Amino acid sequence: MRQTMNGLSGALLGLAAAVAWGVGPAVAIAQVAPPPAGEPKDFSLPERTEFQLDNGIGVTLIPYGKVPKVNVQLVIRTGNIDESADEVWLADLTGDLMKEGTTTRTSEQIAQEAASMGGSVDISIGLDQSGVSGEVLSEFGPDLVALLADVALNPAFPESELERLKADRVREVSIARTQPRSITLEQFRKVMYPDHPYGRIYPTAEMIEGYTLEQTRAFHAENFNASRAHVYVSGRFSYRAMREAVEAAFGEWSEGSARTEDIPEPVTERAVYVLDRPGAAQSTIYFGLPTVDPSHEDYVALQVTNSLLGGSFISRITQNIREEKGYTYSPFSSVSSRYRDAYWVQTADVTTAVTGASLGEISGEIERLRNEPPPAEELRRIQNEAGGLFVLRNSSRGGVINQVAFLDFHGLPDEYLTGYVQKVYRVTPEDVQRIMQEYIRPADMLLVIAGDREQIESQIAAYGEPVWIELED
Question: pLDDT value at position 27?
Fold first, then answer.
């Protein structure tokens, strides 16, 4: 048998070599089409238990999976939204200091304790939400809850670490200001959200250097409290033990102040800003406008439309300016959402000499989809991808928590998740065209470019009179 298989392998190798070198008889190799992809199944939201402690903190317990692990996330409605104009990244610095230990544990002890449970502890600071989270073996779930509570409620704020952490943040800002994507995004958000926390991306070095330990303590005391918090647990765990652990760890937390609701009024108008980068080999493009947020009935259709237009590898803009023309390596469009706010944006780093041509192709694809609905077959490929990715992203303990937290954050019903895949497939070619006409309007788009003024000025003249910004050295 082995000789037969070896002989067969040798014959196949010989045939492959003959074909590769163009010798031997002509052989027609049948091309077998792959089987059609099946439609993704609806997302099944695990049954969950929800309750609230007397101090206002919400709790959601979600049994999930068979692996003996548990994910615990404390989500707090605070972040950069609670910073004033002269406090940019004060929330981030507060989070940095929270990582440096509690009144009873050093940072090293926290790390060692989490590791002994088979996991780790993470602190994240965002625009509207911040979190303290971890994932450990199921038997240590209650212990993880107690550890996370200590980190969130009792940070030590060691003065010995303040200057080091501020220096780290100053260095981070300095690096960001050398990156074209960072400075383009900063200008894009600054123009779209004037005088609002969403429009303040980076602080100055002087701002960071001036922050005091008292400011970080005050920020924590004012914004990290029970009325803004929610505990999510997902995985394999004992319901009774986990509930008792949450009540013991968080039951005495001060209720504190209500969450901030500062819904912006983004600017919707055509404007062009250019950050001059003399000698730049590439132009970084941000081209977009405010649109509907996740609470709107058209949001899922907008996501599908975005994927078809520029938000996936098989999208029209990507195929055009990357695959066909080679203007850029990584064009991408997205719907970026926050609380009761969102915008659509197309980004790309394109070769300087084709800045205008790239904008022309992007605008052309937008207009084509506004004027003509896409073929049903093209839309179906996008729907298969979108539906499959949605289910895949939710196939983990953390993914399930993220989706349930998304519902809570935006005030959405369960049907948003359980019916998401169906909504994706209900989008018709005519819906895509309508979404394009209503929400992706070139006449109202903000265009921000970081590039060499001398080389791109004439290329972008058709898009409006630009505001030229010289960058500081």
Answer: 40
